[in-house]
């Protein structure tokens, strides 16, 4: 961030002294009671996994559009709340039913809009020459309405989620497996020897078969509903994010003079969505249905849930996926180009609006998954969005904003430092510790641990 | 004759356009008329007692809005941390003046000062200034998005302190039985007199703000807002100016908090959550950036909205706050789309 001046020599000495002091304090504490230190480290890593996921998505979005999207926090809350919405029957008594037809229809409309936009962006230009435009428009509008209706039905009958979601799962698994297979085959030299079309068809068929098998298997296990609801929540949060970008931010960006405008606009979005969540789900804290991994493990003197391992693992998996996407895929190249200079990217023929919309979709999915992990670990409440947003923001600033390595490192560092910081004081000061870490970093290393090149 | 008719019909056909243009160019005047008329009719229809309450709440919010506008509108620093100073002011007055009735908290004896209000007020304002100075030394290096982030942080730390520093703040239950202001043995118990007192403080705040923004100091602030690097080149230490206005603004917010404490006669941490601060930012932007009149207007509109939503039919009472929040959030988005300087503003964000 060039807006912050580089620190001079006195500040550097002060910073190093402060760091040494902190390290010495932690070292003293660790030698005093190693078991407790281990416990704190593991708890910190567990919490840090959530922060790392948040920071990954946040840094992806920020380093592409260079403004802070505060909807990001609401995405985390939406993710967690839709798991609750879809699975409320498993946690609360029968008298409490959050089902809300207005919400279902609104989300159906959002999905329909997003589908229509996606089809239009992907196919309209190509189909225009071959078929009459009216026909093409009608076709994708029909598909969009179908997708919207499907979403509404999916939300209407949460008890049959595992069956209704089968087409969705088939679609996603087909896409994922097919893409991976296509990539792998091309990697081993099948794609480049003139048999490209054959490879495509082969990957698609294998993907479809595998996807359909997975969907059928899931449709016969009602226990999978919770995990399907995770997927659906992430997708919904992503769809809302995409719709917000394409339907709102893109227009504000046209006339925005500074990044503060976007910040305030997204603040308005955050306020509105938080209020809607409170209206629909009330202001109280809710538990999410129990997932796997509630057994306690012991390591040395520390005890933790198996779920902690899952959280940490998913943070690393999330990092790996994002790293592959950004560093290795053609899409990533385009995203980095937009991050470097959006105007130039547009000039060389990149559809920046479409790519940024995809980035918003991916970022919101990361946020939603982090929100779900928090909800599964602790509980959900409407204000969690703002808190998670702040943590993700802090973690990405500490790690070095715009840098994937920095994001995951900053997330885990923030989690661990928070735990060690409240060793001697009450646990309520956790947020304070996080913010002190932030201010220290901003004052002394404004570009974070690993600055963006 | 024919020509005249044509001219009239042409003028008539252009009337809607002209009205729209006038609405856009003189939105400030139109908004003032509408808001003041709405406030007047609302107050007339609800009676005197309600009007006094409404005006008192308005005066407190207006103090806050004017103080934030100094930082946000004139200096261009989007601070979401003002609720912290609002709370510090309120809690200082509360802790210093509370009546010696609730002395025990979980077996611990709490120091009771039972000071008079007018002795506690300067302490509250000064404490806000000191805290703002300490925080501001760290903050005044930052700008733009980073400033928002750290001010978010300040608001959250302040809230944590209010909830957890039980020895002083008595935790989530808050401090009750804060006395009304008394001066020379005369207690201001009457609502109308209290309103006059609050309005007097509002006048002082507005007066000081006006003096600041019309002085050379204010011009430097505006220059910092427009281009901080350029003003540094001219030899001004922009961080000192940012620190100074931050401290002044914090003291004004503390004053508003002090008035709130003695007005509601109890304080608890729920009045000082981050959301209040975001609502305050919404008020200032809605009213108009870099316009003191706009802040007053925004505060009045906000108070009207807050009370008006209560009388919407078919709305469950527990949703009143949420509807208000949705309206303000949507307004923020719309303002950023169509009028980034707010209704009466002179600075586009």
Structure commentary:
The complex is a heterodimer of chains A (453) and B (349). With 453 residues, chain A is mostly helical. Chain A has helices at 9-32, 34-65, 71-87, 101-128, 133-156, 161-164, 166-187, 196-219, 225-255, 259-281, 306-328, 330-340, 342-347, 352-377, 384-399, 404-421, 430-444; strands at 296-299, 302-305. Chain A is built from 17 helices and two strands. In chain A, helix 3 (71-87) packs across helix 15, helix 4 packs antiparallel against helix 5 (133-156) and helix 7 (166-187) packs antiparallel against helix 8. The radius of gyration of chain A is 23 Å and the shape is globular. Chain B is 72% helix and 2% strand. Chain B contains 14 helices and four strands. A two-stranded antiparallel ribbon of chain B has the order 1-2. In chain B, strand 3 and strand 4 (186-187) form a beta hairpin. In chain B, 48% of the residues are buried. The model of chain B has no long low-confidence stretch (mean pLDDT 86).
C-alpha geometry of chain B: globular
Mean pLDDT of chain B: 86
**Count of strand segments of chain B:** 4
* Biggest sheet layout of chain A: 2 strands, antiparallel
- Give a short account of the largest sheet of chain B: 2 strands, antiparallel
Can you count the beta strands of chain A?
Answer: 2
Overall pLDDT confidence of chain A: 87
Oligomer: heterodimer
Number of helices of chain B: 14
Residues in β-strands, percent of chain A? under 5%
- Spans of chain B of 5+ residues with little confidence (pLDDT < 50)? none
Proportion in β-strands of chain B: under 5%
Q: Strand-and-helix sequence of chain A, N→C?
A: HHHHHHHHHHEEHHHHHHH
Structural class of chain B: mainly alpha
Name the biggest interface. Answer: A-B, 50 and 46 residues
Roughly what percent helix of chain B?
over 70%
What's the total helix number of chain A? 17
Given helix and strand content, the structural type of chain A is mainly alpha
Low-confidence stretches of chain A: none
Integer count of domains of chain A: 1
């Amino acid at each position: 961030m060039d807006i912050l001046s580089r620190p001079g020599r006195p500040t550097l000495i002060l910073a190093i002294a402060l760091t040494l002091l902190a390290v010495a304090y932690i070292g003293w504490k660790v030698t005093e009671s190693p078991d407790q230190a281990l416990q704190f480290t593991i708890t910190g890593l567990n919490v840090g996994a959530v922060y790392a996921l948040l920071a990954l998505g946040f840094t992806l979005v920020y380093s592409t559009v260079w403004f802070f999207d505060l909807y990001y926090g609401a995405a985390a809350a939406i993710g967690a709340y839709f798991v609750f919405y879809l699975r409320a029957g498993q946690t609360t008594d029968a008298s409490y039913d959050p089902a809300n037809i207005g919400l279902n229809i609104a989300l159906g409309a959002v999905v329909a809009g997003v589908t229509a936009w996606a089809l239009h962006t992907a196919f309209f230009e190509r189909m225009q020459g071959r078929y009459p435009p009216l026909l093409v428009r009608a076709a994708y509008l029909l598909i969009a309405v179908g997708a919207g209706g499907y979403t509404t039905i999916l939300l209407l009958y949460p008890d049959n989620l595992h069956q209704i979601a089968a087409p969705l799962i088939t679609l996603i698994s087909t896409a994922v497996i097919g893409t991976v297979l296509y990539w792998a085959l091309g990697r081993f030299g099948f794609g480049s020897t003139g048999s490209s079309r054959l490879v495509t068809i082969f990957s698609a068929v294998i993907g479809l078969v595998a996807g359909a098998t997975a969907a059928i298997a899931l449709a016969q296990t009602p226990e999978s509903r919770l995990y399907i609801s995770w997927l659906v929540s992430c997708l919904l949060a992503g769809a809302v994010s995409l719709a917000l970008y394409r339907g709102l931010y893109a227009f504000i960006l046209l006339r925005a003079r500074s990044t503060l405008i976007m910040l305030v606009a997204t603040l308005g979005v955050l306020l509105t969505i938080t209020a809607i969540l409170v209206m629909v789900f009330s202001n109280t804290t809710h538990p999410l249905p129990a997932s796997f991994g509630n057994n306690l493990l012991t390591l040395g003197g520390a005890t933790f849930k198996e779920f902690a391992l899952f959280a940490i693992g998913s943070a690393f998996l999330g990092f790996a996926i994002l790293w592959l996407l950004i560093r290795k895929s053609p899409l990533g190249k385009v995203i980095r180009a937009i991050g470097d200079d959006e105007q130039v990217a547009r000039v060389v023929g990149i559809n920046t609006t479409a790519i940024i919309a995809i980035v918003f979709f991916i970022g919101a999915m990361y946020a939603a998954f982090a929100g779900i992990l928090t909800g599964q670990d602790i509980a959900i409440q409407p204000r969690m969005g703002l808190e998670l947003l702040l943590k993700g923001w802090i973690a990405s600033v500490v790690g070095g904003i715009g840098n994937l390595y920095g994001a995951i490192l900053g997330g885990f560092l923030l989690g661990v430092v928070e735990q060690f910081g409240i060793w001697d004081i009450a646990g309520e000061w956790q947020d304070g510790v996080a913010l002190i870490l932030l201010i220290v970093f901003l004052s002394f290393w404004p570009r974070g641990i690993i600055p963006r090149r | 004759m024919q020509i005249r008719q044509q001219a009239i019909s042409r003028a008539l056909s252009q009337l809607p356009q002209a009205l729209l243009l006038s609405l856009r160019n003189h939105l400030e005047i139109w908004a003032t008329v509408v808001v003041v008329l709405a406030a007047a009719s609302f107050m007339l229809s609800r009676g005197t007692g309600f009007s006094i309450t409404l005006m008192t709440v308005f005066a407190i919010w207006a103090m806050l809005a004017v103080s934030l506008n100094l930082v946000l509108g004139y200096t261009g620093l989007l601070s979401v941390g003002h609720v912290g100073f609002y709370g510090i002011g309120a809690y200082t007055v509360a802790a210093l003046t509370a009546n010696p009735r609730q002395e025990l908290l979980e077996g611990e004896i709490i120091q009771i000062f039972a000071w008079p209000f007018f002795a506690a007020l300067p302490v509250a304002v000064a404490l806000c200034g000191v805290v703002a100075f300490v925080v501001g030394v760290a903050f005044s290096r930052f700008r733009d998005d980073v400033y928002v982030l750290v001010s978010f942080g300040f608001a959250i730390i302040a809230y944590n302190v209010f909830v957890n520093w039980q020895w002083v703040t008595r935790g989530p239950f808050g401090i009750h039985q804060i006395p009304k202001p008394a001066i020379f043995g005369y207690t201001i118990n009457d609502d109308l007199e209290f309103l006059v007192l609050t309005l007097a403080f509002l006048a002082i705040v507005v007066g000081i703000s006006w003096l600041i923004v019309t002085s050379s100091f204010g011009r430097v602030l505006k220059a910092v807002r427009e281009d901080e690097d350029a003003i540094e080149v001219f030899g001004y230490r922009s961080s000192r100016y940012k620190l100074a206005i931050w401290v002044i603004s914090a003291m004004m917010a503390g004053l508003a908090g002090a008035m709130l404490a003695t007005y509601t006669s109890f304080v608890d941490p729920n009045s000082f959550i981050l959301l209040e601060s975001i609502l305050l930012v919404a008020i200032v932007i809605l009213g108009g950036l870099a316009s003191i009149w706009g802040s007053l207007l925004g505060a009045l509109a906000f108070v009207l909205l807050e009370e008006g939503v209560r009388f919407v039919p078919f709305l469950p009472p527990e949703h009143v706050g949420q509807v208000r929040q949705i309206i303000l959030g949507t307004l923020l988005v719309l303002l950023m789309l169509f009028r980034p300087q707010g209704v009466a503003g002179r600075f586009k964000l």
